[in-house]
Amino acid sequence: MKKETMRIKSTKRIALDTVEMVLENNYMSQTAVPGQFLHLLVSGHTLRRPISIADVNKTEHTITILFKMLGSGTHDLASYQVGMTIDALGPSGNGFQLHNDNQSTILLIGGGIGVPPLYYLGKTLAQLDMHIISVLGFQTSKSVFYEEKFRALGETYIVTDDGSYGDQGFVTDVLHSVESFDRYYSCGPVPMLQAVTASLKDKPGYISLEERMGCGVGACFACVIPTDDAGGYKKICKDGPVFDAQEVSL
Amino acid sequence: MNNLAVDLPGLQLKNPIMPASGCFGFGREYSEFYDLSKLGAIMMKAATGSERFGNATPRVAETASGMLNAIGLQNPGVESIIETEVSYLANYELPIIANIAGSSIEEYEKVAAAFNETDHVHALELNISCPNVKEGGIQFGTDPKMAANVTERVKKASNLPVYVKLSPNVSDIVAMATAVEAAGADGLSMINTLTGMQIHLPSKRPLLANQTGGLSGAAIKPVAIRMIYEVKQQVSIPIIGMGGITTSEDVLEFLLAGASAVAVGTANFQNPFICPELIDALPHTLKKYGFNTVQDAIGKGITV
Q1: What's the angle, vertex CA B182, arms to CA B174 and CA B175, rounded to 5?
Q2: Are A202 and A245 in contact (CB under 8 A)?
Q3: With contact defined as beta carbons under 8 Å apart, do B263 and B240 qualify?
Q4: Are A181 and A234 in contact (CB under 8 A)?
Q5: Looking at this predicted complex, what is its ipTM?
Q6: Going from the N-terminus, what domains does chain B have, and what CATH number goes with each?
Q7: Which is nearest to B201 in space by CA: A164, A70, A33, A166?
């Protein structure tokens, strides 16, 4: 992990309140692995914002991030223009365990702004000759993004909470219609992850967690999650954000 | 002569900059960014008698020019800290200040005695001002008699110099400072965080799981400066100042108000290199405002 200056190469709204930003930096792009995040300093804000890495282009030296404008930090970040720079710590955290079992079938389950890290993961796994099936949930039709990109990786199901696009319902409603798979990876809101890990408890899987962070390097103990009822814990920023699905108590 | 050097009870500081307790863990994470030997000292994260998990999450919330935290003194307990963290920090050339906390006077004594047994801890920071735990901490920090009592007992439990960390959540900070000085404190560290709260609009509930948290960052600097300025005039023990420092000008402001050294907390989150950057910038800032040494500037802002 380093503190680097990243130059904004492009920025655009790709869905409701959702911004896709391409950031240029040699070190970050050459070292990032799927599931890691960048801890971004937004001018005028005390705390950095952890944003997951959605894609990496090592040839172009770029990292793509997607974020939803939910609070003042992400609103301000969305106002940054092409050519401006962002102070970033990263690549941060431990990414997804990839495994080298090519020809295996992988299920990606993403909800809302939890979808982005699964894209770089899916792309990487597809390059390792794994079969990718994606189940993506969004609030409404205007929130949907990256559908075509996921379809290019393999079979993709889209659901929306209000049924305005794809099937109406939650990602868990679709899981039973997915043919057999070997392993799953999931990222999304905690209630979704609780439902996913409960309904797939017999399957090996990994989940990526989000939390309000302080330092982002493991020193301040702001973003911990219990691992058991006996005081065990993990730091989301440093031990995670990816965990084995059975490793932490959601 | 090193013009940044300061000598305090138990602490020969090569410069007056140290990371504040709770914002820097036990140094390991920041050692990946720079050599910790560059620091004037380190104030370790609070130690309690046994392991503590702390509060539920969310534990942090951003505010205007600052942040709220309610970690809840999460730590692995004093024995584990001595075995793994103090022994690790002993590899660096820097004085170690151990922040001690407890929910009873006996727990404070136990932690103080344990650190006294190690060779590598140079001073204790007595944490009677954590606003985020239900028992102990701040209850000792808001009543001068209780503060004096715990100070006296901790002084007896160990031979290490004791810096009492004062809470700003009191109406008479001078009364707290003079009470712990009379009880034998070797120094003061001030200020801890100010109690605050933020309501999360979408959920219409307090954002922090603990509901209240401690406010830190640039927003609290004027409060810290005022309290140090008032206390410095009434005590003869040295003050380690803290509260919202982000620039070398801020460091000088604390020295002028009466601090002999400073600790940097929240600013580490924005910039992991903040402490070495302040150390590098300080000589120029001192010179710019007419001082040759750190020692020269201490208390020079006091006009009465």
Answers
A1: 20
A2: no
A3: yes
A4: no
A5: 0.93
A6: 6-297 (3.20.20.70)
A7: A70
What does the alpha-carbon distance between residue A165 and residue A146 come to, in Å, rounded to a whole number? 14
Using the Cα atoms of residue B183, residue B184, residue B187 and residue B189 in order, give the sign of their dihedral: negative
Q: How many CB pairs under 8 A join A and B?
A: 94
Q: For residue B106, what are the contacts with CB-CB under 8 A and spacing of at least 6?
A: none
Of B20, B81, B130, B215, which is the active-site residue? B130
Structure token digits, residue A120: 């770089």
What SS3 state is found at B216?
strand
Predicted confidence (pLDDT) per residue in B140-198, tens digit? 889 999 999 999 999 999 999 999 999 999 999 999 999 999 999 999 999 999 999 99
For A223, which DSSP code? S
Instruction: Answer yes or no: B23 catalytic.
Output: no
Tell if the CB–CB gap between A218 and B29 is shorter than 8 Å: yes
In chain A, what are the domains? 2-92 (2.40.30.10), 96-201 (3.40.50.80), 209-250 (2.10.240.10)
Q: What is the arrangement of strands in the sheet containing A131-138, beginning at the earlier edge strand?
A: A167-168, A156-160, A131-138, A105-111, A183-187, A205-208, A242-244
Residues of chain B contacting A, Cβ within 8 Å: 22-25, 28-30, 32-33, 45, 51, 53-54, 57-63, 65-67, 69, 71, 74, 217-218, 266, 268-273
* Confidence band of B298 (pLDDT split at 50, 70, 90): very high
Above 60 in pLDDT, residue A193?
yes
Query: How far apart are the CA of A233 and the nearest CA of chain B, in angstroms?
Result: 8
